[in-house]
Design brief:
Length: about 475
């Protein structure tokens, strides 16, 4: 039966090879393994979910035509994903989709726990992603201390010197992955522990909902019942004083009861603006550690794993070139791999070093595009109007200072995702009403004053350079 399956698939490959570029054939069809052909179901094994999705998106019509011709027009194609415990998708030629599930089941993490409902212990969802484990987190000098601390915490949560653990670093370096890995390991070693992963953004929304529904006490009781609380992107709480005040009390309760707290941020506590000092002090009680940009050896490990997972075939010199030139984080590395594969497939180009160089030159320009922040806006506005940054933070009512402050608020509202309250906190500890008034004033002045409109336009151009 196996040899018959192999023969049928070999015939299919010959047809496919005649209909697509050689580079695409090598990349997307040679890694496929034919498993069986029984009861009009032809089963093939693909290396990853990504691989399956790409085949379905780009080559489903070719697969349909080929199997119809070489195997039989009633044949149903079934995929088995080798490296991920997900569902197998079955597609037949009438355009119907079916599904069959692997033996290993993943937990359903779709349900978001809310503090407003009574949560039975067997219904409680930790919101952990089972994809992010210590096994899939690659260690290097840039993340060694953070990983070691997380593994220590996993063995004895709440009872080490690393409480709280505060991990900071730029986007994409692995903070979130490490949080999920720690939570999963704790649940594995201590199944009785109530572990919760939550983004600061969701925490903020839940708190606002609690206020609207008059259930703030339920919100607090819910979070005070957690054994291991992991809050991601804590900088999202900047400028939100009431939410910070509630977190302060939750933090104190958990810490005093030897419950573990893990926090991540894009900055060190000393660099955070818009967060109460008493909360920052508590963030520094335990271990504060950073995850830096990955070094080249680590970048190579990440690339090689991505290539293995997705069953790709990429020359060593191309892999080395990517590792040498894409230096910021793992997300960029994986994104470049996808871009190179797409260019190779769409344009029928050989996947070689010249192609990699072209794609990376284009991609890096996008990656390195300057991120506009309130701090950057403040710096450029002060430089434009030739005033000290401290003046913007002061209560000074001089006309030129007020105008610079209002322009900073207007540009912050226009070019960042910060709330009015957050912007006000970062620009002189003003309230949201002051920021709203500033934005309205600047907008109205721009409509009637061309020279002022040109000034704001000039500042915006500098921001985008």
């Amino acid at each position: 039966m196996k040899s018959n399956t192999q023969e049928l698939w070999s015939k299919c490959l010959k047809v496919i090879q005649d209909n697509i570029p050689e580079a695409a054939f090598k990349t997307w069809f040679l890694p496929i393994v034919p498993l069986s052909y029984e009861d009009k179901v032809f089963t093939i094994q693909v290396p990853s979910q990504f691989f399956y999705e790409y085949l379905e998106d780009k080559f489903v019509d070719l697969l349909r035509f080929t199997l119809h011709r070489e195997v039989g027009k009633d044949t149903i194609l079934q995929y088995r994903v080798l490296m991920e415990n997900t569902t197998n998708t079955v597609v037949d030629y009438r355009g119907e989709a079916k599904s069959s599930t692997d033996k290993v089941q993943m937990k359903n993490n779709a349900k978001v726990p809310t503090p407003f409902d009574k949560v039975a212990s067997n219904d409680f969802s930790s919101q952990l992603n089972y994809k992010y484990t210590f096994d899939s987190f690659f260690e290097g000098d840039s993340n060694k201390l953070a990983r070691a601390a997380c593994e220590t915490i996993s063995a004895n949560p709440g009872k080490t010197a690393f409480n709280p653990l505060f991990i900071h670093g730029t986007s994409g370096v692995g903070k979130t992955h490490l949080c999920h890995a720690t939570g999963l390991r704790i649940k594995e070693i201590h199944p009785d522990k109530k572990v919760l992963y939550v983004s600061a953004h969701l925490f903020k929304i839940q708190y606002a909902e609690a206020g609207r529904h008059n259930t703030t006490n339920d919100f607090i009781n819910f979070y005070q019942s957690i054994d291991v609380l992991i809050i991601d992107d804590i900088h999202e709480l900047a400028g939100v004083e009431k939410t910070q005040n509630t977190l302060f009390h939750i933090f104190n309760h958990l810490h005093q009861n030897n419950k573990q707290l893990i926090l991540t941020c894009d900055k060190a506590p000393s660099e955070l603006k818009g967060v109460e000092e008493r909360l920052l002090t508590r963030f520094r009680w335990g271990l504060t550690t950073s995850i830096e940009h990955p070094e080249k050896d680590l970048r190579l490990k990440i690339l090689q794993n991505k290539i293995l997972q997705d069953g790709l075939s990429i020359p060593e010199d191309v892999v080395d070139y990517i590792a040498e030139n894409v230096t910021d984080n793992a997300r960029d590395l994986e994104g470049v791999i996808v871009s190179i594969m797409a260019h190779s497939l769409v344009y029928g180009k050989e996947l070689d070093l010249p192609l990699a160089k072209r794609v990376i030159d284009q991609t890096i320009k996008k990656i390195e595009k300057k991120k506009i922040t309130v701090d950057l806006i403040q710096e450029i506005v002060c430089k434009f109007y030739n005033i000290e940054a401290s003046a913007l933070q002061s209560a000074c009512r001089k006309r030129e200072i007020v105008q610079a402050r209002q322009v900073s608020m207007y540009l912050s509202k226009t070019h960042t995702e910060m709330s009015l309250a957050q912007i006000g906190t970062l620009l002189g500890k003003k309230n949201h009403a002051t920021v709203l008034h500033a934005c309205k004033t600047v907008k109205e002045q721009m409509e009637v004053d061309k020279s002022f409109r040109d000034e704001v336009s000039e500042i915006e151009k500098t921001l985008k350079i």
